[in-house]
Design a protein that fits this description.
By secondary structure, this protein is α/β, with parallel strands linked by helices. It has a single domain, classed as P-loop containing nucleotide triphosphate hydrolases (Rossmann fold). The chain contains seven helices and seven strands; from the N terminus they run ααββαββαβαβαβα. A seven-stranded mixed β-sheet has the order 1-3-4-2-5-6-7, with helices on both faces. Strand 6, helix 6 and strand 7 form a beta-alpha-beta unit. The longest helix is centred in the middle third of the chain and has 17 residues. The protein is globular and about 45 Å long. The chain starts with a helix and ends with a helix. The structure holds guanosine-5'-triphosphate (GTP) and magnesium ion.
């Protein structure tokens, strides 16, 4: 879990035997249990939209995963739902080119896997289509309860990330930063990244002041993410 990753880094700086106290801003055991229960029931793909006019009628609480191409959105959907290949993962950036909707039976909660932004290689017209769809969706979806905005823990924050944060501020859509691929970063740099991102998000009115550090590959932060999603279930 994220606080374990933070804890490892802090522990090394303390003398042996010294009692360690971590201010845990993370979920309570009850919230973790609510998240576990929510995703113990199956989640299924039910809809793909390539244009705004083809979105499914709003139902349930929608939670969208947004972020640069290759940041790990589809992998995180698989980790959250406990399914290996519910969302399609690729080594090539720009794999997801539509909005993919997954409904979890308990809930109702709908997870939305989004096309990535910032992928330079894609042909311009195609890119405009799928990135335009993503931005229009983020601006105007009535039942969108939260956006998890994914940032790769190994990569610097890019202008395109800031643009999306500003759009969410303007549209008053609450977003929470999720650091991904924490398995590939040492504790020291990871802690610095967390601090840098917390400082950044504090400058965005729509940004939540708690971030979640994850690794789909290492199972880090997944319980915490599930607990955050379970908050929306009535
Ligand atoms: N080390 C590591 N690699 C990961 C992790 N999550 C995803 N990856 C890798 O990152 C690459 C992209 O993952 P995806 O889940 O397809 O990323 P995406 O954000 O959905 O990408 P697009 O759909 O192209 O925007 C794949 O090669 C994954 O195996 C992780 O937690 N750790
Ligand atoms: Mg994807």
């Amino acid at each position: 879990m994220a606080d374990h990753a933070q804890g490892d880094g802090a522990q090394a700086e303390n003398s042996p035997g010294e009692e360690l106290k971590f201010e845990s801003a993370g979920p309570s055991p009850e919230q973790i249990e609510a998240g576990r229960k929510l995703f113990a029931s199956p989640c299924e793909f039910f809809y793909a939209a390539q244009a705004l006019e083809h979105l499914p009628a709003p139902r349930g609480n929608e939670i969208a995963l947004a972020g640069r191409s290759n940041v790990g959105k589809s992998s995180l959907i698989n980790a959250i739902t406990g399914r290996k290949a519910l969302a399609r993962v690729s080594h090539q950036p720009g794999r997801t080119r539509q909005l993919n909707f997954f409904e979890c039976q308990a809930g109702p909660v709908v997870l939305v896997d989004m096309p990535g932004y910032g992928y330079a290689e894609a042909p311009k017209e195609i890119k405009r289509d799928w990135q335009g769809l993503m931005l229009d969706y983020l601006r105007g979806r009535p039942n969108l309860r939260r956006v998890f905005l994914l940032l790769d823990a190994r990569v610097e924050v890019k202008v395109s990330d800031l643009t999306v944060m500003e759009l969410l501020d303007q549209s008053a859509v609450p977003f929470q930063i999720v650091l991904t691929k924490a398995d590939s970063v040492k504790p020291g740099p990871l802690k610095r990244k967390q601090e840098e991102v917390l400082a950044l998000v504090a400058t965005h009115p729509a940004g939540l002041n708690q971030i979640i550090t994850t690794s789909s590959a290492g199972g880090i932060g997944i319980e915490e993410l599930r607990a955050a999603i379970a908050e929306f279930v009535e």
